[in-house]
Design goal:
Length: 783
């Protein structure tokens, strides 16, 4: 695991500060497959706010190293020593090749390392780490402070008072806050008193800390604190820590009674905080009759081994039997997902059983329908759930042995259903004759929407995107249309564009590109963009901006699902989350920029099968061109596979393999053929709920530390603010946000002259806090 961080379970989210930091560090280290991982992750902390947490983090993140005086016992040393750690030049520290060292740099700001020749000499060995590695920082580029992490959506997202007293109290209680379940802190504003109360004695926490660290509690907190602790233990738990060891007491924890149930519950909320207890549970002899099964790690280990053995047999039995067996295994092992071992990453197969069980249930239902339209309706209503469950099953595991096993399970359950569905759909398409071609349409457009083209956005993944956008409060409508044959980008993308009525056919049997009506040009990606621009469409490229005056809609291309699928095969499933992140962020940013609606479209879907799709032979002498799922048939050839007419020229014959077969062997990811997954493509309309306020910043001028902003808007209730991070309200540096005057102006004062010369963003926000427009500025800038 990168950085040695314990990855949270797929079924849980961080519930303590320590877990949230670990997750944030993992996210900073996340690297797409095929990309080079960073050499190190730099954690700069100019004010040393995080120093008290580092020893705790090192217990679960063994590859955290600290800048300071040489002390290898605490993994601390000077900059040149840290450089040697990164370069694996110190034999006393064996860092696995897959792990990324995390370098904690107390007293060092990110800007210090970026200062070039002005960087202090003792830090020079770390300067180049900025380029070979990454830096853990906020989205605005600033170092993570305790305050920022507490309130940021990328941190704990707590509602914390912004006064000096609360800030000081939060820093004082940082070590205690690391162990507190966050659920008890949400839903209210936290002030200094809330943080100070964390220091009040907590017997349950103290007991867990003693069981995890033993006499270290006595050494760190003094004799009087130890005596008080012993007294509480004798009164509440009926044992004397002076006479019993943690190894003795752990048996009481496993057996459980009314006194110990609350202790166990507290342990399960954040087991990674108490690694010593986990070790004791593994090392202690626990009589079978003495333990509750969910509290004995060996019971969980035995259950995982049993589940592994049973799953390995699925590929050798009939499909119906495999489905029934998965149902029985889920009934037996599903309960283990609520056990503490799941949160510690020791129940990976029990976790994977949840989507596998959904896959089994969905694959038991054949994809029916007596016409192509009926098959399509059945697929979008229920059939796509089988595809989604297959992808989520594959994505549920990471360890190589687990990946190989789950791939075999998915293949056993999914392949028969997928192939039967494709053959039924192909049969209905053939029976419909030319009617199927008439079902192929171009993307819808109302003249005001911004079209976001997402290459290879299959229908089931589009459903995931719809859920994300709905959770953000947007009004979302999912529709579908039919892609043309063959389902390849060159043939299908023109229909997804706003130029789809500009073509009248083609003769290109090599690349399957149609030609424009008014010229012999082929519909390349660049030609499509140029044609849309001549029609008044605002082609944005990588920019995110408001609609240009007089534009007839917008066009944006983003995402690389299809590219990743061809490159990674079944490993694509581990990149889906990142691709959805990109799409969600792009749609949200365009709505924030002022587009009234966003329409997400794509060209085609695809098939994916771990271990490879079945292959079928097609002699090369019969074809002019052969791809995985389609081929151009020579004029006089008669191949032994189904033929279709090319959408853009009915005289061009396209050979398509039966079911989910490929013409090229050992192919895990492919498209170009005829199947529901390839032909049924999504269209997503996204809008903000309710009235859509609009605003545009006309000018920003400074006089000293006061900023005057002029805005054009249709909503008199909007406000103007000045932030260091335009997305984060807590990053405001203005004395207060201001409403516009009747003249459309607002004056913002910056009370702290320490920000003079710093970059900031002027934002215009509506009553719901949504950013309508923004522009960068320099505080105190004189033009």
């Amino acid at each position: 695991m990168a950085g040695g961080v314990s990855r949270p379970s797929a079924t849980t989210s961080p519930n303590t500060l320590l877990q949230a930091i670990e997750q944030s560090l993992l996210d900073a280290l996340r690297t797409p497959d095929g990309s080079e991982p960073p050499a190190a992750l730099l954690w700069t902390d100019a004010d040393q706010q995080w120093s008290g947490l580092i020893p705790r983090l090192q217990s679960t993140c063994p590859h955290i190293f600290t800048l300071g005086d040489y002390d290898p016992e605490t993994r601390t040393g000077p900059a040149i020593w840290l450089r040697c750690v990164v370069d694996r030049a110190l034999p006393e520290f064996e860092i696995p090749p897959s792990a990324v060292p995390i370098l904690y740099l107390p007293g060092v700001a990110r800007q210090t390392l970026r200062a070039g020749d002005d960087c202090p000499r003792e830090f020079w060995p770390l300067v180049e780490m900025q380029f070979r590695g990454r830096v853990w920082h906020q989205r605005n580029g600033r170092d993570w402070t305790v305050e920022a992490f507490l309130v940021s959506d990328d941190g704990l997202a707590l509602d914390v008072a912004q006064d000096v007293r609360t800030r000081d109290a939060a820093r004082r209680s940082l070590a205690l806050l690391a162990e507190i379940a966050l659920d008890g802190l949400r839903g209210r504003r936290l002030d200094a008193d809330d943080f100070d109360r964390l220091a009040v004695a907590d017997p349950t926490r103290d007991l867990l800390r003693w069981m995890s660290t033993g006499d270290a509690l006595l050494r760190t907190e003094g004799i009087s604190r130890w005596k008080a602790f012993c007294s509480v233990c004798m009164a509440t738990y009926r044992f004397d820590p002076d006479k019993r060891s943690p190894a003795d007491v752990v048996l009481d924890l496993v057996a459980g009674d009314d006194r110990w149930d609350s202790v166990w519950q507290r342990f399960t909320e954040a087991p990674s905080l108490y690694p010593g207890i986990v070790q004791l549970l593994r090392e202690s002899f626990i009589p079978i009759l003495h333990a509750r099964e969910e509290r004995n790690p060996r019971d969980n280990d035995d259950a995982e081994a049993s589940l592994r053995k049973e799953l390995s047999t699925l590929g050798g039995i009939p499909h119906a039997s495999a489905i029934a067996k998965v149902g029985a295994l889920e009934a037996e092992h599903g309960k283990r997902r609520s056990w503490v071992w799941t949160g510690l990453g020791e129940s990976s197969l029990a976790v994977a059983m949840e989507p596998i069980a959904r896959l089994a249930a969905a694959s038991a239902i054949p994809l029916g329908g007596a016409t192509p339209s009926a098959v399509i309706s059945t697929y979008v209503a229920a059939g796509c759930l089988c595809d989604r469950a297959a992808l989520e099953s594959l994505a549920a595991v990471r360890a190589p042995a687990d990946v190989a096993l789950v791939e075999s399970v998915v293949r056993a359950l999914y392949l028969p259903w997928l192939d039967a569905s494709a053959r039924h759909f192909q049969d209905m398409v053939q029976r419909s004759g030319t009617a199927f071609r008439g079902m192929v349409t171009g993307t819808r457009h109302d003249g005001e929407s911004c079209i976001v083209f997402a290459d290879g956005l299959r229908y089931d993944i589009a459903c995931m995107l719809v859920e994300r956008l709905s959770d953000r409060g947007f009004r979302v409508r999912l529709d579908h249309r039919v892609a043309p044959v063959p389902t390849v980008t060159s043939t299908a993308k023109p229909l997804a564009s706003l130029s789809h009525n500009s073509f009248d056919g083609g003769e290109d049997i090599v690349d399957f590109r149609p030609r424009f009506k008014e010229s012999p040009l082929a519909a390349t990606a660049q030609a499509l963009r140029e044609d849309m621009a001549t029609r008044g469409v605002d082609v944005l490229g990588d920019d995110v901006r408001a609609p240009a005056e007089g534009s007839k809609g917008g066009w944006v291309e983003t995402g690389q699902l299809d590219h990743l699928g061809h490159s990674l095969g079944a490993r694509l499933v581990h990149q889906e989350r990142m691709e959805l992140d990109v799409l969600e962020a792009k749609v949200s940013a365009l709505l924030d920029a002022g587009w009234p609606s966003i329409r997400v479209v794509t060209d085609h879907g695809w098939l994916l099968m771990p271990g490879g799709l079945p292959s079928v032979a097609l002699p090369a002498h019969l074809t002019a061109l052969r791809w995985c799922r389609c081929a151009t048939v020579k004029t006089t050839a008669r191949p032994d596979v189904t033929e279709y007419a090319w959408h853009w020229n009915q005289d061009v014959r396209i050979a398509s393999p039966p079911g989910i077969c490929c013409f090229l062997p050992n192919t895990e990811y492919a498209h170009g053929g005829v199947s529901p997954q390839e032909c049924i493509v999504p269209e997503i309309l996204v809008q903000r709920v309710g009235f859509r306020a609009s605003a545009s910043i006309r000018s920003v001028t400074w006089r000293g530390m006061r900023c005057r902003v002029s805005v054009t808007t249709n909503d008199s209730s909007i406000r103007v603010d000045l932030r260091t991070n335009w997305k984060q309200p807590h990053s405001s540096i203005a004395a207060s946000a201001k409403e516009l005057s009747t003249a459309g102006e607002a004056s913002l004062a910056v009370p702290d002259d320490a920000f003079e010369g710093e970059s900031a963003t002027v934002v215009v926000i509506d009553q719901g806090g949504n950013v309508l427009d923004r522009t960068s500025t320099i505080v105190g800038e004189i033009r």
